[in-house]
Amino acid sequence: MNAIKQAIKKLPVAAIQQDQQQCIPLTTINVQIHGCLARIAISGRFDFQAWRNFKNSYTPLLDNTVVREIFVEMSKVDYLEASAMGMLLLLNERAKAANKQVALRATCGAVSRVLEGWRFQQNFLHQAH
User: Fold this and answer.
1) Could you give the strand order of the β-sheet that contains 37-46, starting from the edge strand earlier in sequence?
2) First to last CA, the chain
3) Which of 123, 45, 33 has the alpha carbon at shortest distance from 69?
4) Could you give the domains of the chain?
5) Which of 2, 32, 84, 122 is 20 to 30 A (C-alpha) from 53?
């Protein structure tokens, strides 16, 4: 074990970061606004590490008086953590307070099964296809 720690200490930081990036798909969040509709597209791992970026992506949408509906596109999410489900519920709660609607869109595979298993989408206005 000690030899492993010594070997890791000798690796350049960039090599360690590159290796971590190859093993753990990072979360990517993109926002688009089309008139009164906003789209938040999430890809990769949707876990607690994405909390700040996710919050920063939807806060301006809640403050935007033109935006009436927010679609959360999750077709490229390959891992969903329970904390991400909490983030979605918080977005939905804050959107309702701002008189806006939230819909989950294009969930598929394991992510869809997790959401269905928890009857999660009942908390949202509807699921867009």
Assistant:
1) 28-34, 37-46, 69-80, 101-105, 126-128
2) 51
3) 33
4) 25-128 (3.30.750.24)
5) 122
115 neighbors 121 (Cβ within 8 angstroms): yes
User: Could you tell me the two tokens for 108?
Assistant: 């598929």
pTM of the model: 0.74
Token digits of residue 103? 């819909």
Name the packing angle between helices 51-63 and 82-97 (round to 10°).
10
Closest alpha carbon to 47 in 77, 75, 81: 81
State pLDDT tens for residues 37-82: 999 999 999 999 999 999 999 999 999 999 999 999 998 998 888 8
Dist CA 105 CA 71 (whole Å): 6
Give the amino acid at 7. A
Q: Assign residue 42 a region: left if phi > 0, alpha if psi is -120 to 50, beta otherwise?
A: beta
